[in-house]
Design a protein that fits this description.
- The protein has four domains: 195 residues, ATP-grasp fold, A domain (Dna Ligase, domain 1); 90 residues, D-amino Acid Aminotransferase, Chain A, domain 1 (2-Layer Sandwich); 134 residues, Glucose Oxidase, domain 1; 278 residues, TIM Barrel (Alpha-Beta Barrel), CATH 3.20.20.
- 45% of the residues lie in helices and 17% in strands.
- It contains 36 helices and 31 strands.
- An eight-stranded mixed beta sheet has the order 12-22-21-14-15-16-17-13. An eight-stranded parallel barrel has the order 24-25-26-27-28-29-30-31, surrounded by six helices. The chain has a five-stranded antiparallel beta sheet with strand order 1-2-5-3-4.
- Helix 13 crosses helix 20, helix 21 runs parallel beside helix 23 and helix 24 runs antiparallel to helix 25.
- The radius of gyration is 33 Å and the shape is elongated.
């Protein structure tokens, strides 16, 4: 926006006649909490608190629409400056002071605020409006020169790093040098003269970095800060965080201009963060951190250790009582855990932000059920407030309380979990180690937004500073990472790569274990045990025998089962997997992969089948395999007695059951070199060479195998049907379903179905065994109306459908270039992890619509890995599928998300 004059204006700029100009700037009193997409979460909630009559410093919000325009064009909208002028004038009138005036100047903060919370990922600049003249006026008016010079050095430091893209270490090193010269480790021991010298040092650093002086005009400071906040939407760390949290890339950020209130005016001032309930456990009470004589960034940065919020009652009883009343009001208003930022300025409480707070997985379930019991929300709403990903976290193992351990220290459990790994001291080291497949714990004095790469790569985070509201704690909770903060006993020396504690030195590369629930830090690796939630799903722990977390999970998963429309089956190939899945709540098997039954000691029989060069040898090999398959199906159908079991006939290319061509070629060549007869190996090599395909996943596999190799499908069907007949004779209720894979033409399915029905009829089966197919080729989806004529059911194989739609070979592309595609925003998430709704999803919808146009009661399911992905489950619900199928461990997640999908 450049440098601008600050001539007062009493009216908003007129709009051209006949032209509707979108409003880009909103006073806090003009918004509400439902305007997050326009005003961002921070701006919408500041507006809500203002309208609730809470003590919010006056200010205004520049909408995310302005940011989106900036990102699209590279420049701010032409009308924005005039709108800001108007709102600055209004703010100056409210405050009775002006930006840049020499005595008691108006100062403002410039803070980001996206629609979805991204803590610490974008920019903030405090104390905008200070300059070489007004700092003296601020010192005189406040009667506290130290405060004034501290505010000025903070402005230059934040402006330099945020707006001018300077290395933050330049400023931190200067502060450390000033403290060392003073003989102190506490920044509060620096007096006004020390801070004045720091200001000169900082200004010189700005000049050296930019070639220009630090800007003295307040509107120039503001305009440049606003542009920096806009630009920070596309910073590397913000992009990485959005990708990690699956936040849309096109939202943009609002910018909040708020008149400053000061927590660093002395020991009767301070700043803090409060939660209306414990974000780690969900328990009601007084939770948060407070820091006297500090500004808000000091708390979240973790540069000084805070005191518990409860201590504020002794420090400033009036502010504490006011805060407790406001917290109760906000939780009642939002009907949820609220995360609150506040400042006390000389005994006066000011509210700077509120939002529905991030919480751990355990807290999410406890809070949801607590609010039901308190009559605040109903069970439907409670179910909406928990997520499958949170349930998955609760199923992770935890440390064995009975194990022998070497406790190093105990600090603040900031984000639950049990994590072990080797120590690394930098984010770069964490990423490098993770790329090598190593598990690491990232150890820092405190983290900052630039550490996001390392936090994602690490198993857990340990800091020696900060509390439950520090950057490390907030981001770790959001990502579900284990985190322990505020381990003050640890002397972390990043340069030397060591931790010193009670005379003991622990070096980088040593293994430690951290418990994010208890805050305990152990030397070495601690063994883990199954979580109580898994024990509950396994049936070894009754809901009323576990803690209140188990009871909460039971209540909400039970309600999910009551309201969901989607059935939940499992992908299982063995009786053991089927039994576990059934305990976890599976309602049948959606995919049994019969090829897994051909491995191990049975490989030799498969080899004989492949090597057979006449009908007799082939029939002998099939005869050898049939009773083995029959035994497998007996166990599987018995384990799922009374529930449907969808059995996919053999799918992969036959070469997968033979040794690799390279290994065989070497063995044959060595044998011949020694003058030996390679015998069987030579025959295998010839078979492998005969079966070799450049792209086997698009070759002789699936239904094509059954049509080309006589008797293969018939052998499998006899094994399935005869096992079912035997179980029926035992009084059981087997429910096999036979699925033909990789069908691309209805003629293929007709031919395969004819053979399946012939075998079933020969065995005298007296009940219907459904015969269906997988929809895993784009052509199959497009002609699903034809295929439905010969199918009793469809199961969408979204793994292959994704490969064939995108033209990807999953085994090759994920390691080759997916990371670049994620970095460049081509994917928000891998299409193999979450369904590609626009492409693959469109084919699924086409298959559903066309299949049911032919058979309205056609049963439809999905058995690809997407069946256990929470976001994909919502898509399958909307698309009209009857069930999803997933691995046993993901069944509880699928049950929960299927219930949530019904309420969406």
């Amino acid at each position: 926006m450049g440098q601008r004059a600050t001539t007062p204006r009493s009216e908003a700029p007129p709009e051209p006649q006949g032209v509707i100009v979108p409003k880009l700037v909103y006073d806090f009193a003009e918004g509400n909490k439902d305007m997050k997409e326009l005003l961002g979460g921070k701006g919408a909630n500041l507006a809500e608190m203002t309208n609730l009559g809470l003590p919010v410093p006056p200010g205004f919000t520049i909408s995310a629409e302005a940011c989106r325009a900036y990102l699209a064009t590279g420049s701010v909208p032409s009308d924005l400056a005039d709108e800001i002028d108007h709102h600055v004038d209004v703010l100056q009138q409210k405050m009775g002071k002006k930006l840049g005036q020499a005595d008691d100047p108006l100062l403002v903060s410039v803070r980001s605020g996206a629609a979805v919370s991204m803590p610490g990922m974008m920019e903030t600049v405090l104390n905008v409006g200070l300059n070489d003249d007004s700092v003296n006026g601020l010192a005189h008016h406040s009667g506290n020169p130290r405060f004034a010079w501290d505010a000025y050095r903070r402005l230059i430091q934040m402006f330099g790093k945020t707006v001018l893209d300077m290395d933050g270490d330049v400023f931190e090193d200067a502060i450390e040098a000033a403290k060392e010269a003073k003989g102190t480790r506490n920044d509060l021991d620096l007096d006004a003269d020390d801070l004045k010298r720091l200001v000169e040092t900082f200004k010189q650093a700005v000049h050296e970095h930019t070639g220009r002086e630090f800007p003295q005009d307040p509107r120039t400071q503001m305009d440049l800060a606003i542009e920096a906040v806009f630009g920070s939407w596309n910073s590397e760390r913000a992009i990485l965080y959005r990708r990690q949290e699956r936040i849309p890339t096109d939202l943009g950020t609002a910018v909040n201009i708020c008149s400053m209130v000061f927590g660093n005016l002395g020991m009767d001032s301070g700043t803090g963060v409060a939660f209306t309930r414990d974000p780690s456990s969900g328990q009601p009470g007084v939770y948060g951190d407070y820091l006297q004589n500090a500004q808000g960034e000091d708390v979240v940065a973790g540069i000084r250790n805070t005191v518990p919020l409860a201590d504020l009652e002794q420090i400033d009883k009036t502010s504490y009582d006011d805060l407790m009343a406001i917290m109760a009001k906000l939780e009642g208003h939002y009907r949820d855990l609220c995360d609150i930022e506040f400042t006390v300025e000389r005994g006066k409480l000011w509210m700077l932000q509120t939002r529905v707070g991030k919480r751990t997985a355990a807290a999410a379930f406890r809070i949801a059920t607590s609010l039901i019991d308190e009559g605040v929300i109903d069970t439907d709403e409670a179910l909406k407030r928990v997520k499958g990903a949170q349930l998955a976290q609760l199923m992770f193992p935890r440390f064995d309380a009975d194990a022998d351990t070497d406790l190093i220290t105990k600090a603040i459990g900031a984000s639950p979990g049990a994590a072990s790994g080797t120590i690394v001291f930098t984010s770069a080291a964490a990423v490098e180690a993770a790329d090598r497949g190593e598990k690491v714990i990232l150890v820092r004095r405190e983290t900052n937004p630039d550490d996001l790469h390392g936090m994602i790569a690490a198993q857990g985070i340990l800091t020696s500073r900060g509390g439950k509201t520090s950057h490390a704690a907030v981001v770790a909770r959001g990502m579900g990472k284990t985190c322990v903060c505020g381990a003050e006993e640890l002397d972390v020396n990043v340069a030397q790569g060591t931790i010193k504690v009670n005379g003991t030195v622990i070096e980088a590369g040593e293994t430690i274990s951290i418990d994010g629930t208890t805050g305990e830090v152990f030397r070495g690796e601690v063994p883990v045990v199954a979580s109580p939630v898994v024990q509950y799903f396994e049936g070894s722990l009754a809901p009323d025998q576990g803690d209140e977390l188990v009871a909460a999970v039971h209540r909400l998963i039970t309600h999910a089962d009551e309201v969901r429309r989607l059935g939940v089956r499992t992908n299982a190939d063995t009786a053991d997997d089927a039994a576990r899945a059934r305990r976890f709540g599976a309602e049948g098997i959606g995919l049994c992969r019969t090829e897994h039954m051909f491995l191990g000691e049975r490989r030799e029989a498969v080899e004989r089948l492949i090597l057979a060069d006449n009908d007799g040898d082939r029939d002998a090999a099939l005869t050898e395999l049939e009773p083995l398959q029959r035994g497998d199906f007996l166990e599987l159908l018995a384990a799922m007695d009374g529930q449907p079991v969808t059995i996919r006939l053999i799918d992969p290319p036959l070469h997968e059951f033979l040794p690799s061509m390279e290994d065989l070629a070497v063995k044959v060549a060595l044998a011949r070199e020694r003058g030996e007869d390679p015998g069987h190996d030579a025959a295998l090599l010839a078979a492998v060479e005969r079966l070799h395909e450049e792209n086997p996943m698009l070759g002789l596999r699936g239904v094509r195998l059954g049509l080309v190799i006589p008797g293969l499908f018939a052998m499998q069907v006899r094994a399935i049907a005869s096992a079912a007949v035997e179980l029926k004779q035992q009084g059981k209720d087997p429910q096999p379903e036979i699925m033909i894979p990789l069908v691309g033409a209805v003629q293929e399915l007709h031919l395969a179905r004819d053979e399946v029905e012939r075998v079933i009829a020969e065995l005298g089966v007296e009940w219907d065994i459904p015969i269906g197919t997988m929809i895993e080729l784009p052509r199959a989806a497009v002609i699903a109306d034809q295929i439905a004529e010969a199918a009793d059911f469809f199961s969408f194989g979204t793994n292959d459908l994704t490969q064939t739609t995108w033209g990807f070979s999953r085994d090759d592309v994920e390691g080759a270039f997916f990371s670049r595609y994620l970095e460049k925003g081509i994917f928000a998430v891998s299409p193999f992890e979450s369904i590609d709704r626009e492409g693959v999803g469109a084919l699924v919808r086409t298959g559903v619509d066309r299949g049911r146009a032919t058979k309205p009661d056609l049963k439809l399911g999905i058995c690809g890995e997407h069946g256990g992905d929470p976001d994909s489950i919502h898509f399958f619900h909307d698309a009209g599928l009857d069930y999803v199928s997933c691995s046993p461990f993901r069944i509880p997640v699928a049950r929960l998300e299927a219930g949530r999908a019904s309420l969406a």
